[in-house]
Inverse folding.
């Protein structure tokens, strides 16, 4: 067993990664932890066992943001984790080809395509989990919900109204000209502009 992986159960790690890939990078919750929390714990343990190698710090920092990243970024993070673990096992002259061979043979599950009106809004290009969460708070859950979300209020800035023509209670856009501007020093030595 590699010194970096002395306290890590590689089979459990492989199972966790396989399940996450199978479920399309959703940060699945296990019996006790979310996928990203489990990986973070394992990475921190590997970091300590490896003599504080900076490559594990980089991976740890990446997985701290896993829950908020988009699906393509999550996929790349997992690919990087697999590559790093396999390279570490190879350097230690350990059989690394068995590690995650099932995941690599499948060449990772493709990300879901946005096909149709019933697709989740999270999978629209440029949306991701963070913006998807904000959309969900507005009641937008699918692509069709997004397409049918119309503004509640529209302010028309094309109609110009002179100040002398304003009526009480009416919402209008006012244009004006600033003819003069001045500043003076107050008693407290603060410059004020009017």
């Amino acid at each position: 067993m590699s010194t970096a992986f002395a306290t890590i159960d590689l089979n459990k790690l492989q199972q966790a990664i396989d399940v996450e890939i199978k479920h399309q990078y959703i940060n699945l919750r296990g019996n006790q932890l979310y996928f990203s929390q489990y990986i973070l714990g394992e990475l921190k343990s590997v970091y300590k066992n490896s003599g504080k190698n900076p490559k594990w710090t980089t991976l740890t920092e990446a997985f701290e943001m896993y829950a908020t990243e988009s699906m393509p970024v999550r996929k790349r993070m997992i690919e990087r984790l697999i590559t790093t673990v396999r390279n570490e096992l190879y350097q230690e002259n350990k059989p690394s080809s068995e590690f995650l061979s099932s995941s690599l043979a499948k060449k990772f599950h493709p990300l879901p395509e946005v096909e149709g009106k019933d697709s989740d809004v999270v999978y629209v290009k440029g949306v991701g989990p963070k913006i998807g969460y904000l959309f969900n708070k507005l009641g937008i859950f699918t692509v069709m919900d997004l397409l049918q979300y119309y503004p509640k209020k529209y302010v028309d800035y094309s109609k110009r109204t002179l100040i002398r023509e304003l009526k009480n209670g009416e919402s209008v856009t006012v244009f004006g000209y600033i003819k003069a501007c001045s500043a003076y020093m107050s008693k407290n030595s603060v410059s004020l502009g009017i």
Q: What stands out?
A: The first helix runs from residue 10 to 22. Residues 103-114 have pLDDT under 50 and may be disordered. The helical segments are 10-22, 35-49, 54-64, 71-91, 101-105, 128-137, 143-147.
